[in-house]
Amino acid sequence: MEHLLLVGALLLFVAVLAGKVAYRFGAPALLLFLGVGMIFGWRFLSFESYELTQVIGMLALCIILFTGGMDTKFSEIRPVIAPGVVLATLGVVLTALILGCFIYFFACWIGLPMPPAVALLLAATMSSTDSASVFSILRTKKQGLRENLRPMLELESGSNDPMAYIMTILLVGIATTDGGGVGAWSTIFDFISQMIIGALVGYGVGRLAVWTNNKIDIMSNPSLYSVLLLAFVYFSFSFASLVWGNGYLAVYISGLVVGNNRLAHRTNLVTFFDGFTWLAQIILFLTIGLLVNIRELLQPDVLILGCAVGVFLIFIARPIAVLISLLPFRQFTARARMYVSWVGLRGAVPIIFATYPILAGVEQGQLLFNVVFFVTLISLVIQGITVSGMANLLGLAYEEKEALFKVGIPDSIKSNFTEIEINDAVIAGGNTLRDIDLPDNTLVVMVFRDGNYFVPRGNNELHIGDRLLVVSDKSKQEMEELYNTLGIKEVTQLR
Prior knowledge:
Layout: H1 2-25, H2 29-43, H3 50-70, H4 74-77, H5 81-109, H6 116-125, H7 131-141, E1 143-145, H8 149-159, H9 161-177, H10 184-215, H11 224-242, H12 247-259, H13 266-291, H14 294-297, H15 300-325, H16 334-342, H17 348-353, H18 355-360, H19 365-385, H20 387-393, E2 397-399, E3 416-421, E4 442-449, E5 452-454, E6 467-472, H21 476-486, E7 491-493
Antiparallel strand pairs: 1-2, 3-6, 3-7, 4-5, 4-6
């Protein structure tokens, strides 16, 4: 037991160091987590449990999806709900169909013939973008994206797993029973019912979690609020699954509801789930890395098929599916559509889905798993490393300034907290704090200058580039009008 704990601690330690290296060189941290697992599995550890990998994947994905939903503001995704949902449903189906046709004909051409159902099954496992990869990379980069692209990409990646999951399970059944008893209408009905039930359960459990968290009194040990919310995360998934809904969608919707309602102890809860999410991602990618057999991965059949499928998916299947899915939505420019096509990252979810054919006894199941793993590596290397660069190249990126005032504001406080930057226009009529015409019930409570923080007085001179923490009882709209009048352009809402 002591040896097992030592190896586990060493794996986590090396993974964290790898994450630091990845950040410095602009590579996705998840890619290096995967690499650490592969190296340990190749040289030091033997791990071959697909069942345990599925369990770990389920537990980790629940946390990742919930935290992603909790960190997403509904005001940001409201304008992009329609295109996000279309990408998460129609886009996934189109990706699977286009890629499946290519796999069927290409596999026959290279002497690896596959039944149509198996070719489509391989495509279905890779048809959704991976929430863990997208959330991690977009938020680690701290890069703003124009045209509401970031909330749409996060909405798509957080809600498209149910479609890929349903197609994977359906095609596993067809591949193992020659399609007997599987009908198109029953499949459509199952999908719609799972989505509706999952969404309703997620909303209901989310509301219940908010009410319970705000009403229950466990102030004798505030850390238990995190444990309480964690229980609701897994309750949402399990209850939705028990009533024939989609558990992953339920968890994501629960996170959205919790994150967009007044929540007691929000700061502590956000800190806990951010740390727990990183732990879940590290464990998930390390486990997947341990599971793969590098020797099998380097077999000619896997290399040839994996390279061809990866290139076709990135440059043809995903772009076509995105272009068709976004045709009705005229608000996106051609550059935005191109970027959405590019950020079709694959990660842990396709690999977890690829374990289902193996456990179900699908012919060529091991080949499918190895190809999916190889394609995931290609996606993380080619797309993951260039997420930021592609946004800059297409002119869609802007500098997203990080707030300097890391204040934990309880939801019970109704005041408006903003951070502003002083420019020429603000001090044109005088360079002291009292010269700024602020309304009643509005105070500048702290100033940041040259690496130092201080509480200002009315006679303090203000310098260009100073960052001010402003607290006001005025509404957000009123403060926006005030800042426009003063000529302040750099404004950061602190909640």
